[in-house]
Amino acid sequence: MTKIKFLLSVACCCMLLSAAAQTRKAVFMILDGIPADVIEKTDMPVLKEIAARGGYTRSYLGGEKDGFSQSPTISAVGYNHVLTGVWSHKHNVWDNDIREPNYAYWNIFRIAEQANPSLQTAVFSSWIDNRTKLVGEGLPAAGNVKLDYSFDGLELDKTRFPAGEKRMFDIDESVSTEAGRYIREKGPDLSWVYLEYPDDMGHLYGDSPQFLDAVKKADAQVGRVWEAIKAREQQYGEQWMIVITTDHGRDAQTGKNHGSQTDRERTTWIYTNLADRNARFKTNTATVDIMPSILRFLTIPLPATTEQELDGVPFTGKVSVHDLKAVRNGKNIELTWGIFDGAGKAEILVSTTNNVRDGKGDDTYTRVAEVPVSAGKYTFTQPETTFCKIVVKAPNNTISTWIVDNKYVKHVRPFGRQY
Ligand SMILES: [Zn+2]
Question: Domains of the chain by range and CATH?
Answer without folding.
Answer: 24-309 (3.40.720.10), 321-412 (2.60.40.10)
